[in-house]
Automatic annotation (TrEMBL):
This is SIMPL domain-containing protein. Pfam families: SIMPL (PF04402). It comes from the Bacteria. It comes from Thalassobacillus hwangdonensis.
Length: 223
């Protein structure tokens, strides 16, 4: 008769495998900041006159926006371009003047001002309104909530697969890959290169922003 020590265990090697599961989390958030991009574009045969006209109009826009309540630090020049413009007549390149583009980007925390800002700018000479972009300043709090949802979904998927296969699942994933950036500003659909002055007030709806997080988790399971 074989004697077996009480601490002796007759174990067999355990085979393990890995599985990859994805997780997706989505949360909604109300925007609390907007950027408005607008400006003035003009052309003249004289470069000096083109610049002078552009400078006058842009300064008038800035002065009007400041009177409206937009602080100077909220107004930034985001583009200033001067380039010769040409047309083609009978196959030949013909100079038609110098074009000057001066673009301002406004950062607004008071979203109720957006319509008034656009109307004030266009009534003072702005003929470019490129876009209105909404964002959330504290985006990390929303993104972390979405990330938590994504992790929970991945865990649920892994547990379901393990139960279906009747195998044991290591509760801690051996690898997690995050595949979504946290900051996701959303542009407003009203985006036109050249706009004529519109009847006041211009309606702008901020709506809600969707913050999404995606992950891929690798789990180990064994029999």
């Amino acid at each position: 008769m074989m004697y077996m020590h009480p601490y002796y265990r007759n174990t067999e090697p355990t085979t393990s495998w890995t599985m990859k599961v994805s997780g997706r989390g989505i949360v909604k958030g109300e925007p609390d900041q907007a950027t408005v991009t607008l400006g003035f574009q003009n052309k003249d045969m004289s470069l000096k006159q083109a610049q002078e006209k552009n400078n006058q109009v842009i300064q008038a826009i800035i002065d009007a926006l400041t009177r409206l309540g937009v602080a100077p630090e909220q107004i930034q020049t985001s583009e200033y371009r001067i380039f010769p413009d040409y047309d083609y007549k009978e196959g030949e390149q013909v100079f038609t003047g110098y074009q000057v583009n001066n673009i301002l980007t406004l950062t607004l925390d008071d979203l109720s001002m957006i319509g008034a800002v656009i109307d004030t700018a266009t009534s003072n000479g702005a003929n470019l309104v490129r876009d209105v972009t909404f964002s959330i300043q504290d985006i990390d709090a929303y993104y972390n909530a979405a990330l938590q949802q994504a992790l929970q979904q991945a865990v649920s998927k892994a547990q379901t697969i393990a139960q279906s296969l009747q195998v044991n699942l290591n509760a801690v994933p051996i690898r997690i890959i995050e595949s979504t950036a946290a900051e996701q500003p959303i542009p407003f659909a009203k985006s036109s290169m050249v706009l004529a002055a519109e009847s006041s007030p211009t309606p702008i709806e901020k709506g809600q922003l969707t913050i999404e997080a995606n992950i891929v988790a690798t789990y180990q399971y064994f029999n």
